[in-house]
Amino acid sequence: MSNYMPTLKQLQYLVALKEHGHFGKAADSCYVTQSTLSAGIRELESLIGVTLVERTRRVVRFTALGDRIVEKAHRVLREAEELAAIAEASGKPLTGELRMSVIPTIAPFLLPRLLPRLRADRPELKLYLREETTQAAIDSLRHGNVDCVLMALPYPTGELDSEILFQDPLYVAFPRDDPTNPPDWIKPDMIDENKLLLLEDGHCLKDHALAACNRPDLRASATMMGTSLHTLIQMVDNGLGVTMLPEMALAGGILEHTNITARPLQSDHAWRDIALVWRKNSPREKEFHLLAEILRDAADHPAIRANAA
């Protein structure tokens, strides 16, 4: 057995450097100086007798062995955090630190209703949030950078556990002076494929909207250029096309001060499932189910058909 065992701190420095590809940014993420992080990695390399990182003035490049050790380090750090979580979970639930990723098409609309309730009901909970696209959030969860993810399904999550919180219906948004303005709802075949504006790749709402319409010509012809729902709203408001919005965005007031109307999409699966996702066999599973219930209650809002019209 080796006389030297890497410290968790050294592994944390190595993982951070791999994630950020830059010594300064990695040091900032670990709340240490760049020299401290660099020295920690050099000590790790010296004591195990191998080079993990090739350093030049402009590039940080991991060796093949360095990449393998980073993968192992992710698991070691995650297991170490779960050891602490076991003890924490044995006390009062939803106390201490909890790190959650939230996708951009949920964060600005649900969190304003969620956070005040959490502060009131769970004052000992320190909830740290990071906004990420779906795949980035799943990667953060698997690597142990976050404890859970608030996201929309369907989406391939692999070996992860989840609880569906509620269905979030989809709407079609278009300028109020559109001559094809329908009275109550919009069917997929009523959408002009040359006018549909959607979020760019990386946002699962794009795939949910296209799947709900089940029209291959929309997938082929839709313009996918929006970096956020607010960007899409600005384009629609300027007469550049139509888009699809989740009901929670309408409830959050995204159409206020615009000349845009929204109608429900009428199709066999005109919604997305909002879910809380976590690692399988997590020691905090009971807490996540409790958090899911709080999220579900926080999302309960009056019908917004009138506001959407």
Automatic annotation (TrEMBL):
Gene Ontology MF: a single term: DNA-binding transcription factor activity
An annotated GO cellular component: protein-DNA complex
Pfam families: HTH_1 (PF00126), LysR_substrate (PF03466)
Alphabetical list of InterPro entries matching this protein: LysR_HTH_N (IPR000847), LysR_subst-bd (IPR005119), WH-like_DNA-bd_sf (IPR036388), WH_DNA-bd_sf (IPR036390)
Name this polypeptide is given: HTH lysR-type domain-containing protein
PROSITE patterns: HTH_LYSR
Domain HTH lysR-type: 6-63
Sequence similarity: Belongs to the LysR transcriptional regulatory family.
Keyword terms: DNA-binding, Transcription, Transcription regulation
Organism for this UniProt entry: Sphingobium yanoikuyae ATCC 51230
